[in-house]
């Protein structure tokens, strides 16, 4: 919005003071618009020009000749004062804008009409009052649109509970959330909201974080897991040790980021402001010139004033003031609701133009933790084989054992009882399951127990190891029956994300500290265009520069910790899966969820946001090209003359078109 536009100030005030401040201001404008509309009815009906035009006569009575000037004066000071105050603010800042145009237009119209009471002539009180009414309703529509777009922000504020159950020794005391300090322990019952960011120290549950992170499914949480203030505890009672309060909490950081994004400027916003400023100067210039030209040509002061006033009303950069902020409000509130936090709004404008997306592999395209990738068995069904292996591994604390047991549990496999369990340090474990001797471990363990080898299993082991996977062998009753391969598992979403990025014409690059074998396997599996393997964290920024030297605009997607230099070097830095730590200084855009598909969503959001901004700028500025000459009276020889009130309708219509176009973003973003 134009920097001096009072509506813009109100928007900021609304953000800072919450919903009520902004809502109160809108209500005030609405009341002014309603009262002014009611008073304008008798002004219009008792105006001689309207009576002549429509051929009717209103009943006259003593003092009825004062209805029009008195009520018009009241509407000017009551309804028009809002614009006059705005004009003074703009002039104080030496930035004449929309309020200056409206203020000058209604002041000229009012003073000229008052002068006709003394010197005679054709007043236009009815045009003045209808002009103020249309402007007030137009301003109300504008503010309501901005408030509607920013409502997601207000909804986020409402998420924060006000009360918490603080555990003090044996007692549970209800306290206000603001009283909580890091280190406090609170009890969160089923159906209650978590009062602040913390870690579960007792109990397990599922929490609903959908309004905070965009994660649609309830997330399972147990001891040691972090929870976000404002998330809803679904079923179990949990004890949470508070870690962050007040401004440090996830929710407050999100709110601050969204506010920063909405208030920061972009290239298109600066362009809109410049256009609005020049349009104001053009309007004042053309308005003054048309007055002088018509005074000279016709000698009719009333007509000359009418032309000048109409030019100023038509040229009001109302729609321009709304064109960008409304789109920004929608895009930032949409992204915040979907766990996409935009730190730098310029990045949202430029991300659509990137040529290459560079993903850090571990924790971004993959889950970043060890998991079972392959189960190979020659003579047993996969389920039966996994049951025997997991039943033995359940007794081991090794990371490989834990991953195998987790896989069996995930598949709903019931584990059997183990007898004669023994661990062979550095080689594996042996035990009896349902009367069968099961040995799980390295090739050295297989040699040690003289297990009979199976050439097909060994061939498969070699193939899996060539992919950089960790493989454990399993012998049952002295014969190698199969193996289990483990690796950092590829996320399900990664396949779709890379497919969609390539469909958008983006080059997909993967960077990792892993070996060539692992990198090549993951790249081939996902269909990545280019791979950089064995890259140390501090070397990642150099690889970004390498792509930039090839003439590419690069978006770097990493975890925001060891990828910080690369994120800062890239044209757009995207920190993924930062969870509750949203203050990643090196990133332009932060993704709350570990979901590479959100990178595609950002690019699509960027395309739609910029498209809507350009459409709105074109409409808001473009309509002036046609209407200002008409308002100045260039079509007068052909009998086309715009009245100030009609000009006000045109101006308000352009504002409504811009608002509706921005509202249509919702449809595009579904």
Give the arrangement of secondary structure elements:
Elements: H1 6-17, H2 19-45, H3 48-54, H4 67-78, H5 81-92, H6 98-119, H7 125-149, H8 151-159, E1 163-168, E2 171-176, E3 185-188, E4 197-202, E5 205-208, H9 210-213, E6 219-221, E7 226-227, E8 232-233, E9 238-244, H10 250-263, H11 267-298, H12 301-314, H13 318-337, E10 340-342, H14 345-350, E11 356-360, H15 361-365, E12 366-377, H16 382-393, H17 399-410, E13 418-424, E14 428-433, E15 436-441, H18 443-448, H19 455-466, E16 470-476, E17 479-490, H20 492-503, E18 507-511, H21 516-526, E19 530-532, H22 540-549, E20 554-558, H23 564-569, E21 572-576, E22 589-591, H24 597-632, H25 644-663, H26 665-668
Parallel strand pairs: 11-18, 11-20, 18-19, 20-21, 21-22
Antiparallel strand pairs: 1-2, 1-3, 3-9, 4-7, 4-9, 5-6, 5-8, 10-22, 12-17, 13-14, 14-15, 15-16, 16-17
Q: Top keywords for this entry?
A:
disordered N terminus, Calcium-transporting ATPase, cytoplasmic transduction domain A, Rossmann fold, single chain, 22 strands, about 675 residues, 6-stranded antiparallel β-sheet, 26 helices, 4 domains
């Amino acid at each position: 919005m134009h920097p001096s536009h009072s509506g813009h100030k109100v928007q900021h005030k609304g953000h800072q003071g919450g919903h009520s401040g902004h809502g109160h201001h809108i209500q005030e404008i609405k009341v002014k618009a309603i009262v002014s509309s009611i008073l304008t009815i008798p002004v219009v009906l008792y105006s001689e020009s309207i009576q002549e035009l429509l051929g009717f006569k209103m009943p006259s009575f003593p003092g009825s000749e004062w209805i029009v000037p008195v009520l018009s004066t009241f509407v000017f000071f009551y309804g028009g004062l809002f614009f006059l105050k705005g004009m003074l603010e703009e002039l104080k800042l030496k930035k004449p804008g929309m309020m200056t145009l409206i203020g000058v237009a209604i002041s000229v119209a009012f003073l000229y009409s008052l002068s006709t009471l003394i010197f005679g002539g054709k007043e236009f009180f009815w045009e003045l009052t209808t002009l103020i009414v249309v402007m007030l309703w137009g301003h109300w529509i504008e503010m309501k649109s901005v408030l509607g777009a920013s409502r997601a922000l207000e909804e986020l504020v409402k998420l924060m509970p006000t009360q918490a159950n603080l555990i003090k020794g044996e007692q549970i005391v209800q306290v206000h959330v603001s009283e909580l300090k890091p280190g406090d322990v609170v009890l969160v019952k089923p159906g209650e909201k978590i009062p602040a960011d913390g870690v579960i120290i007792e109990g397990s549950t599922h929490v609903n974080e959908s309004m905070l992170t965009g994660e649609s499914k309830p997330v399972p949480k147990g001891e040691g897991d972090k929870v976000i203030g404002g998330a809803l505890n679904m079923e179990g009672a949990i004890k949470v040790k508070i870690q962050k309060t007040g401004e440090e909490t996830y929710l407050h950081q999100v709110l601050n980021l969204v506010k920063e994004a909405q208030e920061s400027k972009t290239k298109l916003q600066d362009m809109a402001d410049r256009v609005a400023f020049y349009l104001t100067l053009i309007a004042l210039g053309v308005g003054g010139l048309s007055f002088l030209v018509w005074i000279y040509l016709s000698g009719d002061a009333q007509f000359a004033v009418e032309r000048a006033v109409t030019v100023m009303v038509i040229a009001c950069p109302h729609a321009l003031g709304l064109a960008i902020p409304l789109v920004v409000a929608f895009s930032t509130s949409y992204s915040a609701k979907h766990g996409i936090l935009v730190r730098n709004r310029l990045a949202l404008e430029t991300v659509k133009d990137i040529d290459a997306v560079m993903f850090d592999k571990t924790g971004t395209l993959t889950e970043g933790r060890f998991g079972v990738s392959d189960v190979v068995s020659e003579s047993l069904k996969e389920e039966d084989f996994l049951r025997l292996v997991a039943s033995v591994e359940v007794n081991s604390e090794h990371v490989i054992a834990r991953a195998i047991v987790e896989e069996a549990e995930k598949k709903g496999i019931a584990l059997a009882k183990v007898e004669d369990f023994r661990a062979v340090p550095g080689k594996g474990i042996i035990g009896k399951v349902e009367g069968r001797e099961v040995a799980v471990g390295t090739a050295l363990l297989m040699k040690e127990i003289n297990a009979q080898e199976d050439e097909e299993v060994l061939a498969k082991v070699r193939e899996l190891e060539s992919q950089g996977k960790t493989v454990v062998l399993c012998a049952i009753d002295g014969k190698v029956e199969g193996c289990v391969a483990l690796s950092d598992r590829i996320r399900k979403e990664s396949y779709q994300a890379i497919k969609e990025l390539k469909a958008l014409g983006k080059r997909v690059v993967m960077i990792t500290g892993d070996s060539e074998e692992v990198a090549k396997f993951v790249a081939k599996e996902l269909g990545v265009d280019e791979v950089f393997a064995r890259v140390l964290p501090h070397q990642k920024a150099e690889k970004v520069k390498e792509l930039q030297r090839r003439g590419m605009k690069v978006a770097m997607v990493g975890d925001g910790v060891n990828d910080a230099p690369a994120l800062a070097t890239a044209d757009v830095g995207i920190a993924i899966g930062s969870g509750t730590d949203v203050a990643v200084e090196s990133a332009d855009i932060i993704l709350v969820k570990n979901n590479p598909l959100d990178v595609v969503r950002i690019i699509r959001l960027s395309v739609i946001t910029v498209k809507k901004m350009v459409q709105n700028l074109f409409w808001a500025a473009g309509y002036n090209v046609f209407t200002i000459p008409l308002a100045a009276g260039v079509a007068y020889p052909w009998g086309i003359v715009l009245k100030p009130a009609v000009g006000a309708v045109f101006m308000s219509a352009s504002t409504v078109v811009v608002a509706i176009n921005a509202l249509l973003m919702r449809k595009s973003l579904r």
